[in-house]
Design brief:
alpha+beta; 7-stranded mixed β-sheet; about 950 residues; flat; 39 strands; about 35% helix
Length: about 950
């Protein structure tokens, strides 16, 4: 066969081979002596099949190369694959398979002429084909793979490496010039031409200096394989069909382009791949300059080539199916100006920032140097009490400053604003202004230099000077020949490079540094001091340096949350998250009534609870009013751990015994006694093995995952009763029995009907005390019931509650009968310095007022019921959902890998929580296997918010995590 290498420009149309399956199977037998069956795979320009032996076991992949490719080119492909395998033994690469007659690689004489066929190893696992979501870890791994292959191939040479392929980015400009005239869609053609022009302009400045080497140049989502285990990252690279000599940076450019069509992907989401590549195979500054233009050119080539292939080969379903994702690649590559994305990459890789536009002329405006500077950031008082949700909040603050005598008010550029920020957003919103906003007390004319050029535009004027262009947006007027800024109206002032093009008024934080090279600080334009750059945030590093490692935080890379309001949390970049996990802030974050009660009481008195003041009595009476009449005596502490600890001590003191019975898989706290009865292996892997001798456990009464399931769950209570009876018969009389009244730690699993009635009766029969741990589920969270034990139609002897009681203030409460409390007194005194303090009591009263007056228990019942019904509908469509547990706003969504075996989907649940955070939802796992979403939002959450949560969850379960 010919060794003349392929040149796309001599043969720009490449119809794929289209051999019928019967002929392929006959050729396998005749050429390789291999009886086999085949199943066709898709390909852009070759023909590929999975080959199975007579037992339907995969043998390998048959690759029928396009007949335009020579023997030398096929040798080059095999050389590249074997070289990578040799240099990177941990990276799986397909080699030619040995058959009955030796290596199965040969030219076939077919009905369509000579075609080269070879069977390469079948790589187990799956590709990332399709447009499902890719996690940051997967994206990072793609960059690592590209770097490993690039390094492995850096030093090889081969005569066929000079082949000219349409996919070789070194020839992209010529390929586009060849294909573009034949594109029939004028809009597509114009878009492709504009992207090409800007990409080539930036690329030409460095192209002559870019290193060249042989590379794979097709390490894409379709050409990597991950093992078929949950959370596994790709470890195999296939399809060496595009091996050639080209710019080395093209390796990562091709990889990056393949990431951009996946669900939710934006250009900045490709940074983990670029960082990983750079870490292993450092990019030069010129290569960084070329990188995003090459990504954009790859997008253009994909779109034009794919559309040409479909016109040429109407039966090529593979090419046809790829059109939409190829166009999305191009759209995403072009969605951010090349200069912006290049600077964003430079900064991420640690290169020095490039110069920004700087105003060096005289100010255009006099008399505003003493302007009131408005802070619209997350922690600003301007945004208190939810005012950030009001679109006119910033304007109101500015006018208030003017009314107080200020000559001007200004909101600076380049500082993230929470004021007016959107909420329930599935992507990081644009919250960083590129313009300052100015309000003046009086109409004021601008002092425009004589050399400047003023132009009217639709929404204002532009003033062009040597340093750049000032864009002034607002209802401007004129005073003689000078532009006039109006009084008491918001005016936007932006300062950009002359060639910047349009710069949006708001940009996302991930791109802000990139946009800064096109738009500078406008403060000096009007005579203000330059705006200070936001310093790098080292808060997390400081936290990890000073706090004990065991005092963990949510997420590996957590947002820095500095404000809450109702069911929302806001980070310092102005991103608003939906809080679906916070049963601590029971009535909503920063509730004004709670805040006012705390502030008022703090101004009056806050001391220890041995002083005599009214609030502690009022609070205790309000709590007991929610409980059965006999539960009339209150102890105040500071947390759920203290409350359950005290409840256990009360049981021991009241009975004169030390042994306790507890339910397995529960968590009750971290103090000595509460930890002793906690047997959740999620909190302590050695929980059961390390229990003290005085703790005795009964089976977790989990009707979904426990030892008795479904209709058999009724066996839990009789068995627990028998256990208590046997314990007593053996001479170990229990002081008490403690369990959650609703299995909160397992994700809101209801106890079997009648369980507490039977077990409480048994423990009391032997003189013990029944303790209900209501720390997580009490206080109206269940909707139908204010207390969890009410669902069981049982009344405990002691109730321990916290979390919701203080809506963020550390308050714990233990309620019992007077006779039991009096017996505790015989063992000594009780004192908690701040338990029931004036401030805690005032807050506790305010929380109860809010729950009552705002109907939050009813909200938990109705909106929680709606949420539960939506989760049940979700379960019908997504097999990973094993069960929906709970009631009201204490729900659990349990994920399993198999509904029959209920194998916990632990890794999947963690990944789902991480993906939800990207979509703006805070969610965490619970349960012994960490495979249950613990859904326990603030009680004030709206139906719109719970619908947003379920919609996001549906998206995650549909598109991946």
């Amino acid at each position: 066969m010919s060794d003349i290498v392929f040149d796309f420009f001599d043969c720009p149309e490449l119809p794929t081979p289209t051999l019928e399956i019967d002929e392929v199977q006959r050729m396998l037998l005749e050429t390789f002596g291999l009886p086999a069956t085949v199943v066709e795979l898709g390909s852009q320009q070759d023909q590929n099949f999975v080959v199975h032996d007579e037992n339907s076991t995969p043998i390998g992949v048959l690759k029928l190369s396009n007949p335009v490719f020579s023997e030398a080119e096929i040798e080059l492909q095999d050389l590249a694959a074997s070289t990578v395998s040799e240099h990177r033994p941990g990276l799986r690469t397909p080699q030619v398979v040995e058959g009955p007659r030796g290596p199965m690689s040969a030219w076939w004489q077919t009905s369509q002429g000579p075609i080269h066929g070879r069977i390469i190893q079948f790589m187990s696992g799956s590709t990332l084909m399709g447009s499902n979501y890719l996690s940051p870890a997967t994206v990072e791994r793609m960059g690592e793979l590209a770097a490993q292959v690039s390094l492995a191939l850096a030093d090889i040479a081969h005569p066929a490496s000079s082949r000219v392929l349409q996919w070789n980015l070194r020839h992209a400009e010529r390929v586009i010039a060849t294909l573009l005239p034949d594109e029939p869609d004028a809009e597509v053609s114009r878009f492709a031409a504009d992207v090409t022009e800007s990409a080539c302009r930036q690329l030409h400045s460095v192209s002559s200096t870019l290193p060249v080497q042989i590379g794979h140049f097709d390490i894409t989502d379709d050409n990597v394989i991950a093992p078929a285990t949950p959370g596994a990252l790709p470890d195999a690279v296939i399809d060496f069909g595009d091996v050639a000599e080209s710019w080395a940076v093209g390796e990562i450019a091709v990889t990056v382009s393949s990431l951009l069509h996946h669900d939710g992907a934006t250009p900045v989401d490709a940074l983990p791949a670029i960082l990983a590549f750079h870490s292993a195979r450092p990019l030069s500054e010129d290569e960084v300059e070329a990188l995003w233009p090459l990504v954009a050119l790859r997008g253009v080539v994909l779109v034009l080539s794919g559309r040409q292939q479909v016109r040429l080969d109407a039966g090529n379903s593979y090419a046809d199916a790829a059109l939409e994702r190829e166009f999305r690649i191009l759209e995403q590559a072009a969605s951010v100006p090349l200069a912006v994305m290049t600077e964003t990459i430079r900064r991420a890789l640690g290169f020095a920032p490039r110069p920004r536009p700087i105003w060096n002329d005289a100010p255009l405006l006099a008399g505003v140097a003493e302007a009131v500077v408005l802070d619209a950031g997350t922690v600003s008082e301007l945004n208190d009490e939810g005012r950030w949700l009001r679109p006119d909040a910033l304007d109101d603050a500015a006018l208030a400053a003017l009314n107080s005598g200020a000559s001007a008010a200004v909101a600076p550029a380049w500082s993230a604003r929470l004021t007016g920020a959107p909420f329930r957003t599935p992507a990081s919103p644009a919250t960083v202004p590129t313009a300052l906003t100015l309000w003046l007390a009086h109409d004021t004319a601008l002092d425009v230099p004589a050399s400047a050029q003023i132009a009217d535009v639709d929404d204002g004027i532009t003033i062009s000077v040597d340093a750049g262009v000032v864009h002034i947006t607002g209802p401007l007027g004129w005073d003689s020949e000078r532009p006039m800024l109006p009084a008491r109206c918001a005016v936007e002032i932006q300062f950009t490079r002359a060639d910047s093009g349009a710069v949006p008024p708001l940009v996302g934080r991930p791109y802000a540094e990139g946009w800064h090279i096109l738009a500078g600080d406008p403060a000096p334009v009007i005579g203000l001091a330059p705006t200070a750059d936001d310093t790098d945030d080292d808060t997390l590093e400081r936290r990890e340096r000073v706090l004990a490692e065991v005092q963990e935080h949510y997420y590996a890379h957590p947002p820095r949350i500095e404000r809450g309001w109702r069911e929302f949390l806001a980070d310092t970049d102005g991103r608003v998250y939906l809080d679906m996990v916070n049963n601590v802030s029971s009535v909503g974050h920063a509730h004004p009534r709670v805040v006012d009660a705390a502030a008022r009481q703090m101004r009056l008195l806050n001391t220890n609870s041995r002083f005599h003041y009214r609030a502690i009595s009022d609070f205790a009476e309000r709590i007991t009013a929610t409980l059965p009449e006999e539960l009339d005596t209150v102890f105040f502490v500071n947390s759920g751990s203290e409350a359950t600890d005290l409840a256990i001590r009360i049981a021991m003191a009241a009975t004169g015994r030390t042994d306790m019975v507890a339910m397995r898989e529960a968590y009750h706290g971290w103090t000595f006694a509460s930890d002793a009865v906690s047997t959740s292996i999620a909190d302590n892997p050695n929980a059961l093995a390390t229990r003290p001798h005085w703790v005795h456990t009964v089976d977790a009464a989990n009707g979904y995952r426990g030892v008795h399931r479904g209709s058999d769950a009724g066996r839990y209570a009789p068995e627990a009763v028998q256990f208590i009876d046997d314990l007593a018969a053996a001479g170990t009389l229990p002081a008490g029995f403690i369990c959650e009244s609703y299995f909160g730690n397992a994700g809101g699993v209801a106890l079997p009907d009648g369980y507490l009635q039977q077990v409480y009766a048994a423990v009391r029969r032997h003189g013990g005390i029944a303790i209900s741990d209501e720390v997580q589920v009490g206080y109206g969270r269940l909707g139908e019931w204010f207390w969890g034990f009410e669902q069981q139609k049982a009344v405990p002897d002691v109730v321990a509650v916290a979390k919701s009681v203080g809506s963020g203030q550390p308050i714990g409460v233990v309620i019992t009968r007077r006779d039991i409390a009096d017996r505790y007194r015989t063992g000594g005194y009780f004192f908690s310095s701040t338990g029931g303090s004036p401030v805690s009591s005032a807050i506790g009263l305010a929380v109860l007022d809010v729950i009552e007056h705002e109907g939050l228990q009813e909200n938990a019942r109705t909106v929680g019921g709606h949420l539960r019904s939506r989760l049940l509908e979700l379960a019908e469509r997504h097999p990973i959902v094993g069960a929906v547990h709970g009631s009201g706003f204490y729900l659990g969504l349990e994920f399993v890998r198999d509904r029959a075996t209920i194998e916990p989907a632990t890794e999947e649940t963690a990944a789902i929580c991480n993906r939800l955070l990207e979509l703006g939802v805070v969610m965490q796992p619970t349960g012994d296997f960490q495979n249950v979403l613990k859904i326990k939002p603030p009680l004030c959450i709206s139906q719109d918010s719970v619908d947003y949560f379920v919609d996001c969850l549906d998206r995650v379960l549909t598109t991946g995590w």
